[in-house]
Amino acid sequence: RSPILCGGGTGAGMGTLLISKIREEFPDRMMATFSVVPSPKVSDTVVEPYNATLSVHQLVENSDETFCTDNEALYDICMRTLKLSNPSYGDLNYLVSAVMSGVTTCLRFPGQLNSDLRKLAVNMVPFPRLHFFMVGFAPLTSRGAHSFRAVSVPELTQQMFDPKNMMAASDFR
Predict the structure, then answer these.
(1) How far is Cα 157 from Cα 150, in angstroms, rounded to an integer?
(2) Which segments within 22-157 are labelled E, that is strand?
(3) How far is CA 167 from the centre of its chain?
(4) What is the pTM of this model?
């Protein structure tokens, strides 16, 4: 599992080169990436679309599962859901790390629902090149929150499929 920043020059170029080299060395291993794709509303540099376009080819060819997030969705979650007026990179990183932790829980801990990347791919990937996942996460809490409340399974399920809880900006209409 490796995080890749598709919009940045170093993240897109070096990250995809690293994935390519790992794939050459270990062709029989499953490769999953957590990729931050650029957003037109939240853009740091002019060349982000070019970097993303060039890195997507490497993700299609050398990754078996790609979990997509984007900065626009992360900022929206921080501002609208978590009520943070000025989210820091620490807040955004907290969200991404919570998603990475949640997605890989069944891989890291034993239990009735334990799985591996191969089983996940068999169940979630209809065609080998269509392995880009959009992650929904619930319940969303800020990193400073220490209060807990009981949440029912139907409520969690509804939150997971709510576009406001998706880590990539989306419109389900």
Answers:
(1) 14
(2) 32-37, 65-70, 132-134
(3) 6
(4) 0.85
Whole-angstrom distance, CA of residue 20 vs CA of residue 61: 9
SS3 track for 91-128: HHHHHHHHHHHHHHHHHHCCCCCCCCHHHHHHHHCCCC
Classified by CATH at the fold level, domain 2-165 comes out as Rossmann fold (3.40.50)
Domains of the chain: which residue ranges? 2-165
Residue 161 is given by DSSP the state: T
Phi-psi region of 104 (alpha: psi -120 to 50; beta: other; left: phi over 0): alpha
Q: How far is CA 172 from the centre of its chain?
A: 18
Q: For residue 144, what are its two tokens?
A: 């400073």
pLDDT digits (tens, 9 = 90+) for 73-97: 999 999 988 888 888 888 888 899 9
